[in-house]
Amino acid sequence: MRRFPFFILITILLLAGCGQRSNSWEEIGDLANAVIPPRGSFDLTVGPDGTPYIAYVSERSGNAEIYVVRFVEDEWVTVGGGNVSNSGGTSVLPSLAISEDGIPFVAWADNSSGSPQIFVRFYDGFAWAEIGTDSATSEGISASGGDSLWPALALDSAGTPYVAWTDTGASGFSSIFIRYWDGSQWAELGAGSATGNGLSSGATEAKHPSLVIGPEGQPWLVWDDGAGLGTSVYGQRWDGSGWQEIGAGSNSGEGLSAAAMSGSDNVNPVLLAGPNGTVYLAWNNQGIIGTATSQSIYALQFDGNGWREVSSGSAAEYGLSGNTSDWAPAMALDNDGRLYAAWATLDDNAGYVNIQRRDGDSWRTLGETPRFGVPDKVPAIGEPSLPQLAIAGDGTVYLAWLVAGTDSIKIQRYLP
User: Fold this and answer.
1) Is 375 helix (H, G, I), strand (E, B) or coil?
2) pTM for the complete prediction?
3) Which of 352, 358, 312, 309 lies closest to 331, judged by CA?
4) Which of 112, 164, 245, 297 is least enclosed, having the fewest CB within 10 Å?
């Protein structure tokens, strides 16, 4: 029998191994029977060990409940074996975070008390538990008497949970509220942070909060509000004793989006804090360029001195995306501090998810992005939307999106 040279065999095996981690996308399943309410119907994140988690809404138990799954040994496994909410009401808009010691926390909106309120649980290793009395029953942590929606959850390095949300009172005006767990109760973060006008003083339509723990280990918060001419993005940060603007004018006038086209709508902001002290902000700009309606992705970064574009032209005209039919931005950073951005796009008679990585002042696409035909640029079955993005410590990029009309969430990963 002819012997195969040993060094050739080793070479083939090494090449095969490298091929398994080529620069390409691979599908790692989908979550069927996912309910698709408005923006924020699922959330993707990665744990400290690199395991991806998704919180989403499903009606498979008979009504809309929150589920959390994680990807283990090539399959999605339900954390806790059942749903998180288990309230009997309608549970939507989950926000998911994993602590540095691997404990999942979830916040969501639930209407079992008669009006939507904000509920919170964490997984204690055996079951989904409340954090304090009634954090996921009765009127939850909001107990505002109004409608509480769009929760945004963040954990600091000690595992302390902070939750911001939109509260609509009897007046019909919407404000941004925030509470945190102080070890014994869900307390306001500063006087009036979850009563009256909350953090968005003078707001009439404040919504879509995005919350991160900033470079100083304290919460940073942004939102959009239509109180002025068009809708603008506003923000504040907690300095340990009070709420401060993030640069001059961040919570007044046209806020953080002041440099955008006059009269345009700036909505759905997303905030991202980096390990090097830089904070990134992206949002959807909707305006008119010439005579055409435009939807583009705008992005800025805060380096300690002020806000500036993340790349040339990233917050003007066609913005970061360079297109006129883009929405729903998502951002993530890898361990090398490189910025990734994803968004949904209609272009060339197709709807698809675009994901790019910043290299210096330019951006490059990661492989071929998932494309789904949309005849005449009208939303149709299979159109991807609302992408979510997360990156593991080994550089693996996870991308998930809703497939409109199919009640499913698709998930892919990019192996660097």
Assistant:
1) helix
2) 0.91
3) 358
4) 245
Query: For all residues of the chain together, what is the average pLDDT?
Result: 86
> Contact 120/140 with Cβ under 8 angstroms?
yes
Interval 23-77: pLDDT, tens = 788 889 777 766 655 444 899 999 999 999 999 998 887 888 999 999 999 999 9
| In the block, residue with structure tokens 């068009």 | 230
DSSP-assigned beta bridge partners for residue 280: 272, 301
**180-189: long-range pairs with CB below 8 Å, 24+:** 180/219, 181/131, 181/132, 184/132, 185/132, 186/131, 186/132, 186/135, 186/141, 189/162, 189/219, 189/238
CA–CA separation, 253 vs 12, rounded Å? Answer: 63
Query: Residue 196: which residues within 8 A CB-CB, separation 6 or more?
Result: 175
Q: Which residues of the chain have pLDDT under 50?
A: 1-4, 6-20, 38-40, 373-381
411's tokens: 């998930």
